[in-house]
Amino acid sequence: MSRVSCGAVALSLLALGACDRVKPEAPGTKPMATGDVQAAALASYVKPGDQDQYYLFYSGGHSGQVFVAGVPSMRHIFTIPVFTPYPGTGYGYDEESKAMLGDFTWGDVHHPAASKTAGDYDGRWLFVNDNANNRIARIDLRDLKTRQILGPIPNTMGNHGSSMVTENTEYALVATRFSVPMGQAYAPIEEYATKYKGAVSGIRIDSATGTMSLGWQIMTPPFNWDLGATGKGPSVNWAFWTSYNTERATGKLETTSTQKDRDYVAVVNWTAAASAAAAGTGIAMVSGVPVIDPAKTPGVMYLLPCGKSPHGVDVDPSGEYVICSGKLQPTSTVFSFAKIQDAIARKSFTGSEDGIPVLKYEDAMVMEVPVGLGPLHTQFDGKGYAYTSLFVESAIAKWKLPPYAAGADPKAMVVDKIPVQFNVGHLVTAHGDTRHPKGDWLVAMNKMSKGRSIKTGPSIPESSQLIDITGEGKMKMVYEAYTEPEPHFAQLIHKDVLKNTIEFYPKAESHHKHAIWAASDAKVTRNAARRTVEGTVFAIRTYFEPGRIQVQEGDTVILHITNAEQARDEIHGFGLVTFDKNVVIDPGETKTLKFVARKSGVYPYYCTNFCSALHQEMQGYLEVVPRGTPLALYQNGTGLMRAPAEGRRAMQADGPHADHAGAGK
Ligand code: K7E
Ligand code: CUA
User: How confident is the model at residue 650 (pLDDT cuts 50, 70, 90)?
Assistant: First the structure.
C-alpha cells in the first residue's frame, strides 16, 4: 500500500478528495503523482448539469446489449437492449420487439459500427453483431432504439467478424467465426478440412431507411474468421479479415491450430463480390443466398500471410495502411495497400488455398513494429500515430505510422507505452476508425480488474480506463470505470454527430395504425366467437383509459397502448401484475401487448415509470371473468365495451415537473 500525499496547491474539493487517501497499489504500477491526479480529476470531471463531449457506445458482449457511457466522465448513461429483453425499457415484452427477438433470449454483441458518410460518422445508425445467434441489428441513433434484427444469417456460425460498415454505409460486412458444412448440411468432423466452409457476407443497407437485407456471400476455406475492417480512401472497395486455424485443424485448437508460423488476412474486393452476385456468374444459391466461389470468380478474394494467430486488423485513416497483429508474436505488421494491389497486378502469388491466390508477405509488408506482447487491436489519432492494445503485457503501445525513413529502426517507432489494469482487449479512440480521428481520448477496455473495485463477490467487473492522447509524446491515464459484461469493441462518437436525436415521437409522425390521441378514442371490443379482446388504451398523466378492462377467462387479449404525451421525459409503463409483462411506452409511441387471460381473477395494471406526483394513481383493473359468467361490460358478451360510468379527470396537476407542457394540460 502507498499513500498519496497532498500537494501544496489545493485544487478545490476534487483534488482534496484524492488527497491523503490510502490507495491500493496495483502490481507493476506506480501510484499517480499528486499533480497528475489533480490534472486527471479536472480533465474527466463533468459537473452536475454539464454534458459529456462524447458518447461511448460499448458492446455489452453476452449481455446482448449496448451500453452508453459519457466521455470524459465515463458515467454510464443509458442501456440499449438489442438481443436481450430488458424490462427497464419494456424491450422484448411488446409484440413489436418480441417479433424482432424471435425465440432467442440472448445475443453476444462484440463490434458496434456506426454508419458513415464519406468515411466519417453521420449519426444515423449503429450496427451490432450477435456472435452467438448469427444475427446483426440496427440501432437508430435518432431514438437509440433497436429497429431491426436480421438473421440468423445462413451459412454462418458465430457472426464474429462483424459488423464492418463500408465508407458510405452501402454494406455491413460480416464473417463467420466457425466453419460448418454449407446449407445446414451434416458432415462428420473428420471431414472438416474439405467439407466445412466459412463465409464472408455482404449485408446490404438501404441508404434511406437503413433497412438491412442479405446481399451475397463468399464461400471460404474452413478457417476461423476473427475480425475485419473495411477500407477507406484508396482501399474503399476492399475489406480485410484476420483468420486463425488456417491449419484447418480440429481437436484442441490451442495446439492444433498454432502449428504454422503465419495465418492469413483475407483481402476481399467487396464491390467485385457485389458485381459478381448481381451478374449471377459462378453463383450457387445456398439457403437462398447467392454464394460466390472465389475459385471460380477471380479478383474477389486473396489471402495475405500475417503474424501467427492474429486477432485484430485495422485500416489507418488514410486507407493506405493495413495493420495486423499476431497474438503469439510481439509485433504489429504494417501492410501497404498500394503494395498489395501491385502484387495482385503482378500476380505475385506463392500458391493458393481452395483456389484463392496467396500473396507474398514480403511483397506487401512495410514494417514489423515491435509493439509488445499479445497485440490485439489498433486505433488511430489522425496525427500519424497508432495505438495497439497489448493483452499479455496489459498495456497500450503508441507507435508511429508510415511513411518511414529508409532504414528506420522499427524499435524507434514505438514512442510510448502506458500500463492498463489488466489484460486489455479492445481499445477505442474518438472517431478512431473513421477518416478523421479526433485524437483526444482513448478508452482501454480491460478484460479483468482483479480487485481494483470495491468487492463484488467472485464475479468481478471489467475495468475501462480513459487515457488522454492529446500530447505529442506521453499518454496520460485519467480515469477508471467499471463496465457491464462484457465490452469488446466500442464507438466513441462526438455528441454533435448525434444532434438529431429526438426527445419524443412527434404525433404528426406516428404511423402505428392503432395510435390514439384522445381519451375518448380509447375502446375495447370483444369477439365472443373468436374469444379475442382487442383494444386501444390511452396513457397520459396520470391515468389509463380505459381504467377497467373486462375479458373472459381464456380470452386472447391484444392491447395497443399509446402514450399521448408530447413532452420530454414523460414515459409511461404498463405493468400487468402477475402476468410477467411490462410494456414501456415513450411519449408519442404506441406499443402492442398480447397475452392470454388464463385464470379468472382481478389483476391490476399500473404505470411503471415515475411520471408525475400522481404516478402511483396511474392504475387500472383487468377483470378476468370466470367462464359461464356474463361479461357485464359488453352487450351479449361481444361488441364494444361500454365506457366506464365514472368520469375521468382530464389531467392531473403535475407537481415536480415544471417544464412539462404535456398534452392535455
Ligand atoms: Cu473481444 Cu473484437 Cu470479439 Cu477482441 S473481440 S477483445
Ligand atoms: Cu405514468 Cu407513472
Answer: very low
The 8-class DSSP code of residue 61 comes to B
Residue-wise pLDDT tens digits, 579-628: 999 999 999 999 999 999 999 999 999 999 999 999 999 999 999 999 99
Instruction: Quote the CA–CA distance of 538 and 527 in Å, as a whole number.
Output: 21
Q: Exposure pattern of 414-440 as b/e (b: 16+ CB <10 Å)?
A: bebbbbbbbbbbbbbbbbbbbbebbbb
- How far apart CA 408 and CA 267 sit, in angstroms, is 27
Residue 347's SS3 state is coil
- Helix or strand or coil: residue 434? coil
Burial 254-293 (b: 16+ CB within 10 A, else e): eeebbeeebbbbbbbbbbbbbebbeeeebbeebeebbbbb
Torsion of CA 610, 589, 121, 437, to 10 degrees: 0
Interatomic CA distance for residues 527 and 555, integer angstroms? 9
Measured between alpha carbons, how far is 236 from 1 in angstroms, rounded to an integer? 52
Ligand (nearest to CA of 58)? 1
Per-residue pLDDT, averaged over 510-539, amounts to 94
Q: Specify the residue with its C-alpha closest to ligand 1, atom 1.
A: 488
Does 10 have pLDDT greater than 50?
no
Listing DSSP states for 348-379 in one string gives -EEEEETTEEEE-HHHHEEEEE---SSEEEEE
Regarding pTM above 0.90, the answer is yes
For CA atoms 503, 504, 509, 510, give the dihedral sign: positive
Taking the CA of residue 425 as reference, the ligand 1 atom at the shortest distance is 6
CB count within 10 Å of CB 21 equals 11
Strands 164-165 and 157-159: unpaired
Task: Name every protein residue with a CB atom under 6 angstroms from any ligand 1 atom.
Answer: 110-111, 160, 227, 311, 376-377, 425-426, 488-489
State the Rg of the chain over Cα.
Answer: 28
- pLDDT > 80? residue 383: yes
